[in-house]
Description:
Elements: H1 6-22, H2 28-35, H3 39-51, E1 55-59, E2 62-65
Antiparallel strand pairs: 1-2
Amino acid sequence: MTALSAQQQRIYDEIARYQREEGYTPTLRVLGEAIGISQFTVNAHLKKIIDKGRARRINPRHIELS
């Protein structure tokens, strides 16, 4: 598995925290607000996280972390 950049790790950790606390995957907007970046930037990083094999999309709204 390829290592994540610092920003990608922050997004990964925020998804994990949100899923633990809320029981479902946060939206791109919620992620962006939590980290302080735009939802478009979150989406770009999320694609890289998926490409690196650390997560996968179950459907457009659900991410499964590895």
